[in-house]
Structures are given as C-alpha cells and as structure tokens.
Amino acid sequence: MLPYFPDPNAEVKHCRRDYIISLVTFIAVTISLTYDGSAPLSHQKILAIIAWAILIAMLWGENKVVRTQVMIAVVFATLGENFASLYMEAYTYRFKNIPLYIPAGHGIVYLTAVALGRSGFFQRYARKISIFVVFVGSVWAIRGISPFTERDDLVGAVLFCAFLICLFKGRSPMVYLGAFFITSWLEIVGTQAGTWSWAEIDPASTLTQGNPPSGIAAWYCLVDAVAMAGAKPVLKLCEPFLSSRSSSA
Asked: How far apart are CA 32 and CA 79, in angstroms?
C-alpha cells in the first residue's frame, strides 16, 4: 500500500550527523530569518557568508550523489526564486530583492529534509509521522478556506493536495515528510518576522493565498524530483573531468 515507505519492522540505525544537521538548521533558520526581518540590507552579506559556511560544513561528510543533489537543488530553487518573487511577485522580500543567503539556504533546507527523512527516528516512526503531518496539514489547509480565517488560502489547499499525492505516490516520501517540517517552520518564522510576505492573490492562478500558503512543502517535492533526476546525468557528465583530475594527481 505504501511501497516507498520504510518497513516498520526493519532495524534502523541512528546517525548523530542527521540530528545535528537538523538541529543546526532549525536554530539557524530561526535566528537568521528573525534577524533579517529588521536588519539593514548590508547585513545580508554577513548572513550569506554564514549560510555558505554552514552548507559547506554540512556537505563535508556527504557522498557525491547527495552533494550533487544539493547543488542542483540550489540552482533550481534559486532560479525559481527569481521567477516567482522578482518576476511574478507571488511573494516579495523586504528589500524587493533575493537576499544573498537564499541560495545557500535552499541547499541547507534540502539537505535537512534529506537528513530528517533518513534519520533513525523518521525511519522507525514513518507512518505515525505521516499521520501527524496529514492531520496538521489538513487542519491548516481547511482553516485557510473556512469562514474563520482572516485571509483566504485556496492556493495552500491546492498545494497541500499536491503534497499528499507526492507523499503517498512519490518515490521520496521520507524527504517530503522532512520537508514539511523545515519548510513550514521557516515560512512561519520568515513571514512573522516580516522578512518576506506572500501576495493575497497568486499572480499565476489568480487564487487567494495565505501568508504563508498552507501546503508550501509541495514546492520542495518538485525541488527533490529535479535534484534526484538530475544528479545521475550531472555526475555522468562530470565523470571524465573528475577522472582526468584523479589520474593527473
């Protein structure tokens, strides 16, 4: 029924690295996005240096496949930022720009989703965690289209439906579960701090959307799909270059 979920009876291994990556990310996201909500524009350079340093340190112990997936995620998500924010204005940052720390931030967030998904805790309790995510996400989405909400969120409801399809039909459900937690958290922190805000009407669909939309984790399902699909071709393309470097050394 859930072919891509881990076997609940399988033995799991807890890797301290996965938990450290997740903890550092949640702390860094909270501090940096809250700080950038009121800091001057020039301080975004400092946040960018810190973000890239954190990402490089996190990637140090990863294999080449994960590193490649992260770099693809950085490129794809950054292009998406420029299109969705600067061009479409579906959401806008405080200074009407793409903050310099955002590209590295996407890499950190993607790697954190991967780390959470492969962690022993998520592997052991995958089904219980998915029930929790479905319940919380459903309440959030339903509230956004109910008479009791302060701001209609049809986009969020649509995105959450897409997220559910990815979660139960996609090949990386554990990554999607991890993405739900970290992306929901960073969106709540970022919008509450005023670091960015979502337009009341989505310019692409003309549907109402919340600040933030409830099903925002669905976009990271797309990022994951692109990263996983692109990693193998990129590695194959770079293989002659890497082989020549190793042979010359």
From this structure: 22
pLDDT tens, residue by residue, 35-94: 999 999 999 999 999 999 999 999 999 999 999 999 999 999 999 999 999 999 999 999
In 204-229, which positions are buried (b, 16+ CB within 10 angstroms) versus exposed (e)? Answer: eeeebbbbbbbbbbbbbbebbbbbbe
Q: Give, in order, the Cα–Cα distances in Å from 5 to each of 183, 191, 223.
A: 21, 32, 20
Retrieve residue 96's tokens. Answer: 């009407």
Question: Helix (H, G, I), strand (E, B), or coil: what is residue 236?
Answer: helix
- Rounded to whole angstroms, the Cα distance separating 42 from 54 reads 20
CA neighbor of 156 nearest in space, from 88, 201, 212 = 212
* Helices then strands, each counted (H, E), the chain: 9, 2
Q: Could you tell me the pTM of the whole model?
A: 0.94
Q: How far apart, in whole angstroms, are the C-alpha atoms of residue 183 and residue 190?
A: 10
Distance CA 170, CA 233 (A): 20
Q: pLDDT tens digit string along 7-33?
A: 988 899 999 999 999 999 999 999 999
Environment class of residue 183 by beta-carbon count within 10 Å: exposed (0-12), middle (13-18) or buried (19+)? buried
At 42, is the secondary structure helix, strand, or coil? coil
Tell me: cis bond preceding 213? Omega within 30 of 0 counts. no
